[in-house]
């Protein structure tokens, strides 16, 4: 146990020493008092592209969430369900609820009365509209929001971790370069040279790993493009259903206006005109 404690204390001291040396190097670089190894242009471009992808994916994700669920407390509730790996309960839409109220009211007023029978009809349309909305929300969450979230919480965290590691390897490399410059004695120079070669190998290896991960952003774009198509298809289907669910709006007719006249026009007539 004592040996383990000694080892842990030594490791802690060693880690603290490394952290301190890196902090000194980083500070001196910022003050322009130390040289800094620059990353190659290809890697820099990949990093810039990845940062741009992450920032815009985050904005699009957040705004899509707001579009699909404007109620912040409902969004928080859904967030907790996801974190607990539990299925989000299917939420009744406002239109479905309105439809239910209308149909319940019709029973009270008498379904045979003009008002009651109309409430039943309109209530049914409201319920259909609400059902279409719920379907759209579910499809958008599965096909669009989930892949974006998976990128932000999965791939991006891996990329960030490897980039931090690359920055540490770069700092270690520049610390070794500085040591070699300062070394006066032949044996100190030899030791510093050996450390520098090892640090260079570690840095090159980590740069390669980071580069491969960042090149994967191209696949992310392809994947997100496919998800975007699915989102648009779900949205188009939803709006199509909502238009044709409203009484009188069947696929063969459209409401047309000319001057102060307004009425239903056959779609075939409009196609002939165009």
UniProtKB/TrEMBL annotation:
Domain BAR per the UniProt entry, residue ranges: 28-274
Set out the biological process GO terms recorded for this chain's protein.
membrane organization
Q: One of this protein's Pfam families, by short name?
A: BAR
Any Gene Ontology CC annotation: membrane
Q: Which family does it belong to?
A: Belongs to the endophilin family.
Q: What is the protein name stated in its UniProt record?
A: Endophilin-B2-like
Q: Organism source for this protein?
A: Sinocyclocheilus rhinocerous
């Amino acid at each position: 146990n004592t040996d383990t404690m000694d080892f842990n204390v030594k490791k802690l001291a060693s880690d603290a020493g490394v952290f301190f040396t890196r902090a000194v190097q980083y500070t001196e670089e910022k003050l322009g008092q130390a040289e800094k190894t620059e990353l190659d242009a290809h890697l820099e471009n990949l990093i810039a592209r990845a940062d741009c992808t992450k920032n815009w994916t985050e904005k699009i994700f957040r705004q899509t969430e707001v579009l699909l669920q404007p109620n912040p407390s409902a969004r928080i509730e859904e967030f907790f369900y996801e974190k607990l790996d539990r299925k989000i309960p299917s939420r009744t839409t406002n239109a479905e609820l309105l439809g239910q109220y209308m149909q319940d009211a019709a029973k009270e007023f008498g379904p045979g009365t003009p008002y009651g029978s109309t409430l039943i009809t309109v209530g049914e349309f409201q319920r259909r509209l609400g059902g279409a909305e719920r379907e759209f929300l579910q499809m958008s969450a599965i096909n669009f929001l989930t892949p974006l979230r998976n990128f932000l919480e999965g791939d991006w965290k891996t990329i960030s971790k490897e980039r931090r590691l690359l920055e540490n390897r770069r700092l270690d490399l520049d610390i070794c370069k500085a040591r070699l410059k300062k070394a006066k004695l032949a044996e100190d120079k030899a030791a510093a040279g050996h450390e520098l070669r090892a640090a260079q190998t570690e840095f090159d290896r980590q740069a390669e790993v980071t580069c491969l991960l960042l090149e994967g952003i191209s696949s992310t774009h392809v994947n997100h493009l496919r998800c975007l198509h699915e989102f648009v298809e779900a949205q188009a289907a939803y709006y199509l259903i909502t238009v044709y669910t409203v009484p009188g709006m069947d696929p063969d007719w459209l409401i047309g206006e000319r001057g102060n006249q307004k009425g239903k026009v056959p779609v075939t007539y409009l196609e002939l005109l165009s």
